[in-house]
Write a structure and sequence with these properties.
single chain, 25% strand, five-stranded mixed β-sheet, 647 residues, alpha+beta
């Protein structure tokens, strides 16, 4: 165990102010980083109620000698640095010496530790900054630190804590980053007596990614390794086809420390230029190794922002690393059209019937491929049953060897199966009609009050000319020409429909639920807004481990990529935590309408064009799409003729 020294005042003043302990995640980050600095290769974290009432962190590092245990809880006491020059080449995760003192000031802390050269361990307790116990303890080499009752003595800070689930997810986000930055360390995370994460500590980054971010995310990555001008970049990046709607799954680590770097993000996205859709962002887990003297980490209280001596050098290394990986590892998207068949219950047809069955399947595929009658509306199952006419039934004929009789459609009685013991067969028995009931005296109905409907102005006659560029509908109406943006107009129509339906929008249950892997910030935001998503038509449930499962969605987006939809909604919920619920709901309606609306370039039949124009012109209030773009432009006949020199 290195000697812990109290820094002189002139050195302590050079250190940027440390991060104030504001939530359990802050404590977990500082203590786990201290465990890694102590040489631990196994760390176990256990929390209860999101870490508000209980945090226990156990490691097998070098431990703390009894002579140093009191010093460890003094502000600006550290074994990481001793001179001012050490701040210019920091090689450890922690260096300020403020974490333990800050934690002990707002909680009840118990430490059990034993150094490498000690036969007996030490138990040290401190509450609210005041020492209570210093005694011998039997414990293995390493350190176990227990934090109880966070902010018990500062209720003003306690009230700013979020729900237990949100605080627990924030802790899980910290654990994920540490597990990814140090795959050589086995990390075990126990949350409310349940194991939620356990990495092997085999030193393989892909193994840590698989455990932390899941199988689905890990399967979309490309390995990369590149070195340029003394900067080495290694790790994994996502394939262009698997891009995400936000940057939440971009992890950058500098010298095994999680950082937020604008330079790295811009370089990564520049490498994907012309390979990725507009509005999409690549995912990555990249580790940058650089000389400690070429970077200053003593900038931000949380140590997540750093200052590089040469930004261009970092940009080039990340850019060429990603670019070379894409050229070598990116492959064409593979599509499979094979349909899984349960052969156990499907009899194999004879050779003579094989062609006939294939023809029937082909006809069925052609029927399903027909375009919807009205592309801007979706019919629910209840409405569909009402519109389908009951087919005319043929006369029912029964033959029971003794008699033959027919029952016409209008005279169809109820049929009751009856077992005949003589013939040992079941035959239908006709139930006789009940006796007619005498008519009751008629009662004069109460007069029905007329329903006053809103009178809309009559639409001027129009003629649909056609469609330009498969995007704009041309309509002649009186002495003017209307140019309609079909996507913008359809988007606004759907948006108004969603907002008007206060009882909830039409939804469809999924035959196969969709699982979505999210970052811990997105995961927490979604769980905090399940009721809001439910109101918007998305039935989402917690699937555990940073994943959610979608069982139901709005009918309008049933054909969309639901995983991408949920990721986009989750990213918005993270960035709009302070917005009001109506604003969030409007944004979700807007996003759903945008995805469900017909797209520019989609084929539209003449029937659909006419029905669409009819619906739009009967709603004069629809003038702009939710983005604010006009849905319709008018050109007068006079203006057209003026441009042609006719007037």
């Amino acid at each position: 165990m290195p000697q812990i020294n109290i820094l002189p005042k002139h050195i302590a003043e050079l250190i940027a102010a440390g991060e104030v302990v504001e939530r359990p995640a802050s404590i977990v980050k500082e203590i786990m980083e201290n465990a890694i600095d102590a040489g631990a290769d196994k760390i176990t974290l256990e929390i209860k109620r999101g870490g508000i009432t209980y945090i226990r962190i156990t490691d097998n590092g070098c431990g703390i000698d009894r002579d140093n245990i009191r010093k460890a809880f003094i502000s600006h006491a550290t074994s990481k640095i001793s001179t001012a020059d050490d701040l210019n080449a920091i090689c450890t995760l922690g260096f300020r010496g403020e974490a333990l003192a800050s934690i002990a000031a707002v909680s009840r802390v118990e430490v059990m530790t034993r150094g490498e050269n000690e036969d007996v361990g030490t138990r040290y307790c401190i509450e609210g900054g005041e020492e209570t116990v210093l005694d011998d303890a039997g414990c293995p080499k390493g350190t176990t630190l227990i934090v109880r009752d966070l902010f018990y003595n500062t209720p003003a800070r306690m009230k700013f804590l979020k729900k237990d689930v949100s605080e627990g997810n924030a802790v899980a986000a910290v654990v994920d980053r540490i597990a990814l930055s140090h795959p050589e360390v086995s990390v075990r995370f126990i949350r409310d007596s349940k194991d939620v994460l356990f990495t092997s500590g085999d030193g393989k980054l892909d193994s840590a990614i698989y455990k932390v971010l899941g199988k689905d995310f890990a399967s979309t990555l490309i390995p990369c390794d590149y070195e340029l001008e003394g900067v080495r970049v290694s790790g994994y990046i996502s394939k262009p086809f698997n891009a995400r709607p936000n940057r939440m799954m971009q992890y950058f680590f500098l010298n095994d420390r999680f950082i937020k770097t604008r330079t790295g993000m811009v370089a990564l996205e520049e490498a994907y230029k012309n390979s990725i859709m507009v509005g999409k962002f690549p995912a990555c887990v990249l580790k940058i190794q650089i000389a400690p003297g070429a970077v200053d980490v003593n900038v931000h209280p949380a140590k997540t922002e750093v200052r590089f001596a040469n930004e261009k050098m970092i940009f080039n290394a990340v850019y060429y690393c990603a670019k070379s990986a894409l050229q070598q590892g990116d492959t064409r998207v593979q599509a499979s059209f094979q349909q899984k068949v349960n052969r156990q219950f499907m009899p194999r047809p004879a050779e003579g019937k094989q062609i006939k069955i294939y023809e029937q399947q082909l006809e069925q595929i052609k029927k399903e491929a027909q375009p919807k009658q009205d592309f801007w509306t979706n019919t629910t199952s209840t409405e569909f049953r009402k519109t389908v006419e009951t087919p005319k039934s043929e006369p029912i004929v029964f033959n029971d060897n003794n008699s033959k009789f027919e029952i016409e459609k209008d005279e169809t009685p109820d049929l009751i199966p009856c077992f005949n013991p003589t013939t040992q067969e079941i035959s239908p028995v006709v139930q006789t009609k009940p006796e007619p009931v005498a008519e009751q005296p008629s009662i004069e109905p109460e007069p029905i009050q007329p329903i006053v409907e809103e009178v809309r102005p009559e639409v001027e006659p129009y003629r649909v000319i056609g469609e330009a560029f498969k995007t704009y509908i041309l309509v002649e109406q009186g002495k003017k020409l209307l140019i309609i943006d079909k996507h913008a107009a359809h988007e606004r129509m759907l948006f108004e429909k969603f907002k008007a339906n206060r009882d909830g929008i039409e939804t469809q249950m999924l035959l196969a639920p969709v699982t979505v892997t999210l970052s811990k910030e997105e995961y927490s935001a979604v769980l905090d807004n399940l009721d809001l998503l439910e109101k918007a038509g998305y039935h989402v449930e917690d699937f555990g481990g940073g994943m959610v499962i979608v069982n139901e969605c709005p009918t309008a987006v049933a054909d969309a990529d639901l995983a991408e939809v949920i990721m986009e909604l989750a990213g918005y919920l993270v960035s709009s935590q302070k917005e009001l619920v109506p604003e969030k709901l409007d944004w979700i309606y807007h996003s759903t309408a945008c995805r469900a609306a017909i797209k520019a370039g989609d084929r539209t039949t003449d029937y659909e064009l006419n029905k669409f124009v009819e619906s739009l012109l009967n709603n004069p209030d629809i003038r702009y799409c939710p983005h604010g773009r006009p849905v319709l432009i008018e050109m007068s006949r006079y203006e057209i003729e003026k441009n042609f020199g006719r007037v």
